[in-house]
Write a structure and sequence with these properties.
Structural class: mainly alpha
CATH class: Mainly Alpha
Radius of gyration: 15 Å
Number of strands: 0
Distance between the termini: 27 Å
Number of helices: 8
Strand content: under 5%
Order of helices and strands: HHHHHHHH
Helix content: 55-70%
């Protein structure tokens, strides 16, 4: 999603650590304050990511390296927001998003690229590990920035 907006330094190993290790957990949950247009585009992108994530788990479990890699690459390259907005709108969007949201997003998309590479090498143990980190990133992000939409996650956020 926003991965393309803020380029990732692929030589910086810290930027590719699993999402649950790189995000400041002390930030209290906060609902994103986006315009209706931004909200709709974000939801569209999230639905596409969700669809791919739901296919990846059985693909890993079945040893389907090509399918897993293709789906992970789709997530890595999911740039609906970038392609649907003008440069001015992109700048506006960035000012509306909390820094931790952008950081979680960048790590998530970077992990999707790592998942694609692990799958291409048929390293299914590593693929499963990376995928687990991506699921954790989803839960982390949703519990912090989509608490109205996913209120049950607040129980998790307040107990950790």
């Amino acid at each position: 999603m926003l991965y393309a907006l803020n380029s990732c330094n692929h030589n910086d190993t810290d930027s590719h650590a699993p999402a649950h290790h790189t995000i400041d957990e002390s930030t209290a949950p906060a609902e994103l304050k986006l315009t209706p247009k931004f909200q709709e585009l974000l939801k569209k992108e999230m639905r596409e990511i969700q669809s791919a994530m739901q296919e990846i788990l059985p693909s890993i479990a079945k040893g389907e390296s090509e399918k897993t890699a293709r789906l992970a690459e789709q997530i890595h390259n999911s740039f609906i927001l970038k392609n649907a907005l003008s440069k001015k709108e992109l700048k506006q969007l960035i000012t509306l998003l909390p820094a931790n949201f952008v950081k979680i997003d960048r790590v998530f998309h970077s992990d999707a690229a790592k998942l694609a590479e692990a799958a291409k090498q048929s390293d299914f143990a590593r693929s499963a590990e990376i995928f687990g980190g991506m699921v954790n990133a989803c839960v982390n992000c949703h519990s912090r920035f989509a608490n109205v939409e996913f209120p049950e996650l607040q129980k998790t956020a307040t107990t950790h």
